[in-house]
Amino acid sequence: MTASVKKYLPPGPARLFKRIYLTIRGIYYRGNRYTCPICGHSFRKMLPGGFDLPVIREKQIVGAGRRENDICPYCQSTDRDRLLFLFLQRETDFFNTPNLVLHIAPEPALYRVFSKAKNLDYHPATKYSEGFYYSSKVETADLLDLHFDESTFDWVICNHVLEHIPNDRKAMTEIYRVLKPKGKAILQVPISFKLETTFEDEKITSKADREKFFGQFDHVRIYGADYVQRLKSAGFTVHLIRQGKDFSSVGKLEKYAVNPEEVIFFCEKPEKKVRL
Predict the structure, then answer these.
(1) Nearest alpha carbon to residue 35 among 45, 20, 24
(2) Are 53 and 215 in contact (CB under 8 A)?
(3) DSSP string of 142-204, one letter each residue
(4) Are the C-beta atoms of 107 and 128 separated by less than 8 Å?
(5) Distances in Å between the alpha carbon of 263 and those of 140, 179, 188, 231, 243?
């Protein structure tokens, strides 16, 4: 939906217009090459998404860059949304047992599924409202100072958020705090495995420079291989789930148009925090 249409339509008609537009677009792209596991529709191609920037290519940042088959024409899920959904559905008890879930900056496609799941006590939250992007049911929460009690949630989903937060270590400890012992978190970030050490520089503040050095105007770092150690320092047990090795029960994932290089950072809170 164009910005000009949203500007002149009130929320109700705007949502109706969007549904009609997405339905027509889904029909136009209908085919058998790709299937979106979130909405269940199949397409001859997905829509392109992401940015093609020199730093992304140079650092080989996984979870960034332009992908030609990225966005579902119907539900608008991205490749990383679909990968996360498949992992939760096929490899965990997320949809099979009662779970209290905190979802930070919820992606619309996942929000629609999670909010309807009868087994989930679902709490979507974000610090900033982005107009039509978020439902009015999404509450306000600061990831650096979550208003939830300690040991509240069975799951925390935080998908490509930490790279936006200057004090990411504080955010990690807050996520750890609100998880129950034996609770689980998925903490995805764009990452360069070419870098041994995360690259960040607090002097890089302009949108142009952040895009040049970090790959996006609102990113504040490029995570390197030490991202795992950052998570462990917050107290997490970290499992790297690699497609085709640790994530094999779904069979081949090509038909879901996921990024085959993306690794899932699956974290657990031990019953007792391990001192490092």
Answers:
(1) 45
(2) yes
(3) -TTS--SPTT-EEEEEEES-GGG-TTHHHHHHHHHHHEEEEEEEEEE--B-TT-SS-EE-TT-
(4) no
(5) 29, 22, 8, 15, 7
Q: Which residue type, as a one-letter code, is found at position 128?
A: Y
* Average pLDDT along the chain, 276 residues, taken 10 residues at a time: 47 62 75 94 94 95 94 95 95 96 95 96 82 68 95 97 96 98 98 97 97 96 98 97 74 85 96 64
Domains and CATH numbers, the chain: 47-268 (3.40.50.150)
Distance CA 41, CA 26 (A): 8
Helices and strands, number each (H, E), in the chain: 8, 13
What is the pTM assigned to this prediction? Answer: 0.88
Contact 178, 152 (CB under 8 A): yes
Residue corresponding to tokens 């539900």: 75
The position carrying tokens 């420079």 is: 209
Residue pair 138/106 in contact (Cβ under 8 Å)? The answer is: yes
How many residues does this entry show for the chain? 276
